[in-house]
Amino acid sequence: MSEHPTGDALPEYAERVLDVAELIPPGRVMTYGDVAEWLDEGGPRQVGRVMALYGSAVPWWRVVRSDGRLLPGHELRALDHYREESTPLRETSARAEGHLPRLDMRRARWDGVTGGPADAAGGGGGAHT
Question: Which residues of the chain are under the pLDDT cut of 50?
Answer without folding.
Answer: 1-6, 118-129
